[in-house]
Predict the 3D structure of the following.
Amino acid sequence: MSDDNVLIKARDLSVHFPLRGKKMFAEAQVVRAVEGVNLDIARSSFFGLVGESGSGKTTLGRALLKAVPITRGTVQYDDGEAQIDLTNVDKKQLKDYRTRAQLIFQDPYAALSPRMTVRDIIAEPLEVMGLTKTREETDARVREIAEKCRLNLEHLRRFPHAFSGGQRQRISIARALVSNPRFVVADESVAALDVSIQADVLNLLKEIQQEMGLTFLFISHDLSVVAHICDHVAVMYLGRLVETAPTRELFNNPRHPYTKALLSAIPSLDPDAPKTAQKLIGEIPSPTNPPPGCKFQTRCPNAINICRVDEPKLEHSSTGHEVACHRWQELMNTM
Amino acid sequence: MTRLLDVENLTLQFKTDEGLITAVDNVSFSLDAGEVMGLVGESGSGKSVTAKSLMKLNPHNAVYGPDTKITLHLDDGPVDIMSLKSAKEMRVARGGAISMIFQEPMASFAPAISIGNQMVEQLQIHTAMNKKRATEVSIEMLDRVGISDASTRFKQYAFELSGGMRQRAMIAMALSTKPKLLIADEPTTALDVTIQAQVIDLMKDLVKDFGMGIVFITHDLGVIAQTADTVAVMYLSRIVERGTVRDVIRNPSHPYTKGLLAALPRLDDLDTPLTPIPGDIPSPLERPSGCVFNTRCGVKVGDICSAQIPDFSDISNSHQTACHLYSSEATPS
């Protein structure tokens, strides 16, 4: 990936949260939610981030929005018009960044104020950021974005309680897009929706992304959803990226044992599907006390001595398929 | 196989300030011992309410239809669930012959009572065991569901266990009274896929060992395909299609089931675009007349769809669909 095509460039990004209740003289405990992440997100791409709960995907997404304090590392943002170094910003730059980077939440029932009309909800970012001067201008912009998100203009005067889950999620999307951002983090944005509506929202997101040339970071635990909508996918485990690749490459040719296990754990629609599933035993360890060496070694069926001592680095390759595993090449050959 | 449960014409309405809301409309199904029946549907389809009716666990504003008949066939004769009145009478079913596991195990365990004490308490209520025996049985069950170091876990509280472990403990507790029927309401929805796979395997093993019948409620067709023998698809309070899992998933016939499958992102086919079902599920206050799916259906036969409720038509002897598309073929008018 050439540098001038990269929107977000994170290097050695770490986010630690201190735990309260430190004992005297004891070292303070920290939750290492994100640890040493190197990540490039290309402009106008649909970038997927998958992992189980507790893997740090939400925290990583928020760190890229500068919504949580960054403990270590750098994040560079460059959309061609503005270059922002997130780890070293002043107030003015940060304000600018807020208009350029937006977030869509998971639960459309909790994300919308029940006391505001749909018009006010969508217009709020414009007013807060001072992007429009007059009420007419605001209204015009709200109507434009509402149409784009396939909302009925009649609905702008109503309150959120009158809407179904799918419609509410379209309202949340409209609110995120109204400031005309370049980068949108969608955190589990379809997880709370029924399948028949999920498909509609996914199609809408993809349409808007292509039309407006947006860059999406799509965070999800659902690999089949990610497979359908994303161009590039990163798999996270216990705060680390363990594998990143173009979507098809990742799903056709997974290299990391964790990615393989995740893929085989998805229940197949075929009742007679062969049970080749390599079942993972146990659960994700606590991020306050991660295991030494490779973070996946406690559950990995292929772990050997080196895995328990030495943490593998994400290996670069010309195809854009990167994996952090000591044994991936060896395992590819034997399987 | 021996018949375990018969549900006939289950109709359930809720009295609310806005009027009567029909949550379940004329639902019938039956279940054999050792059989797993999947109940699939989107939110608001009435699947949880249907399952709770089997133990009359619905709130006080629930009104059952006069023709509703639920019969549980136990070793010492059939039990008519609808005739059970007091909470004491209900004990035969609730926690006795029928156990239930819920979606969110954190919300189902009492937070200030240890897991062990909760397991022992219900065993003492429902069986003749003394405390010592109940403790032994509980620890044995925890061990059986794959919780390592069961005697330590026994003394712990729900917050000390991880999500997967909590769901296992919930299953252990539900099965310790040796129920004949287990109702599992979205038992894997809150879990990660790798843990979900573990819980599904565990439940399959347990069905083999214990031979109970399971009503498995979920919105995930993949989970159904991997666990259930038969499946009933619910939409807006009615069953629209039922049959063996292979029949329904390989050869879906109701437009709603077809729509659900087309909307599902599938890993084995990344090229076909996702097709949403148009429109939203109507409010239960404004139930469409005739076929409940007619407002979103793309292949309507004609006016009959909004005028007349379709009966079940046989697709095969193990597969039925409630759609006029099939009834009009059988009886041309």
